Amino acid sequence: MKHMVSLISILLLFVTFNYVIAEDTLNIAVSRLESDISNNLKTIGIDLKSAAKDAGKLKESEIRKLLLGLYANKPYVIDASFVNSKGIMTMIEPDKYRKHEGSDISNQEAVIRMQKSKRPFMSNLLDSVEGIKSIDIEYPVFSPDRKFVGSLSLLVEQDKFIRKIAAPVEKELNVNCFVMQKNGILIYDTDQSQVGLNTFSDQLYKDYPELVSLGKRMVREKEGTGYYTFLIHGTDKIVKKQAAWKTIRFFDNDWIVVAYREIK
Questions:
Q1: Residue 56: what pLDDT?
Q2: H helices within 174-259, ranges in order?
């Protein structure tokens, strides 16, 4: 009997040790992800701020050069555009997307917020007029006499943007990651098939209440750790997983960044 108790104690210590090691690794991973994604978003913000400062006093040909500059060397950017004060995309670069000039996007979230607040804003995932699910990042443009004349817009393939940052962390620390909006929509996941799904309402997650509950906790709490059960990628096998998360705030919107791994 004593030997049985000792064996159980050893097993419990082993499991606890594994959980602690896993949590330490996840905290390191999510801290790196939060820092690296935040810094890259800040760089986008700096570029937009600088361009917007000049855009209000430039001619159309000069604004187009400005837009090309914003687009250049950013493989995750679909296009850069100037949106006038009425929500019309009057200039778009590169030229492959110029066919969408004149499109009215005044009903889009980022443009509505821009019209009201005249402040920089990052949208949630949207269906763009270019036909690509993406994120719109907008920065206000003012004339020299401080009159609001429109905004500069960068349309970003957020999955591509985040994947370039997350992939090295995932490989080095042997973790998986996802990034979720506060409405539950996944804008990034190591498993690309889950990008665009809603954690709170999609059929894939309905049989996993622990995951849904943890996702809602992530919305309420800016950072933390937790457990849930879900499928192993590409299989029908269910395992227990451990997760750590942090929340990034950028241009009046939040991304919940999560690192997770299977535990035994």
A1: 86
A2: 209-220
